[in-house]
Write a structure and sequence with these properties.
- This protein has 159 residues and is of the alpha+beta class.
- Strand 2 and strand 3 form a beta hairpin.
Length: 159
C-alpha cells in the first residue's frame, strides 16, 4: 500500500522505528455470497481489502473509501466483525509498522471489480469454496464476517 503523506512526514523524524498505526479491513460480499479480494502489489499475496484511515477519518468511512479506491466497488458497512492487533511488519525499505485492525463486514452496492490503483495486481470476486491461497489472518477475518457472533477481540489475560 502506498505510504500516506502523514506517515511520510512522521518518518522524516522517526526514521525506520516501529510505528503503531490504525488500520481498517473489509470482508465485502456481493449478492451471490462471493468475497471481494485483492492481490497486493507489494507482496503478491491475496487479501481482503485494507488500508489506513486518514487523520480524523472515521474507520467505517475509511474502509468504504479504501474498497472503492483499490477495487472500484462501492460498498456499505454492515458491522464490525473483529478488532485485532497485527504482527510487526518490516517493509523492504526498513520501515517497521504494527497495525490495530478494525475489520468490517461490508455489502457491495455498485461498481465493477477492477484494479483501480497501483496497490493491487488483481482484484476479483471469489466463491467461498474457491478462495486463492491466503494466510491465516485472512481466513480468520472471513470466518468472523460469516458468523453471527459478536465482534471478536482478544480477551484480557488474568495477569
Amino acid at each position: 500500500m502506498p505510504t500516506p503523506d502523514f506517515i511520510r512526514r512522521i518518518r522524516t523524524t522517526a526514521g525506520h522505528q516501529l510505528l503503531w498505526l490504525p488500520g481498517v479491513s473489509a470482508v465485502v460480499f456481493d449478492d451471490e455470497g462471493r468475497i471481494l479480494l485483492g492481490q497486493r502489489a507489494d507482496n503478491g499475496k491475496w487479501t481482503v481489502i485494507s488500508g489506513i484511515p486518514d487523520p480524523g477519518e472515521q474507520p467505517a468511512a475509511a474502509v468504504v473509501r479504501e474498497v472503492f479506491e483499490e477495487t472500484g466497488v462501492r460498498c456499505v458497512v454492515e458491522r464490525v466483525v473483529a478488532v485485532r492487533s497485527g504482527r510487526q511488519v518490516t517493509y523492504p525499505n526498513g520501515d517497521i509498522c504494527q497495525f490495530m485492525d478494525i475489520c468490517f463486514r461490508c455489502r457491495a452496492v455498485g461498481g465493477e471489480a477492477c484494479v483501480n490503483d497501483d496497490e493491487s495486481l488483481e482484484v476479483g470476486w471469489f466463491e467461498l469454496d474457491a478462495l486463492p491461497e491466503m494466510g491465516e489472518y485472512q481466513h480468520f477475518r472471513i470466518k468472523q464476517a460469516l458468523s453471527d457472533e459478536p465482534t471478536w477481540f482478544q480477551p484480557m489475560s488474568d495477569e
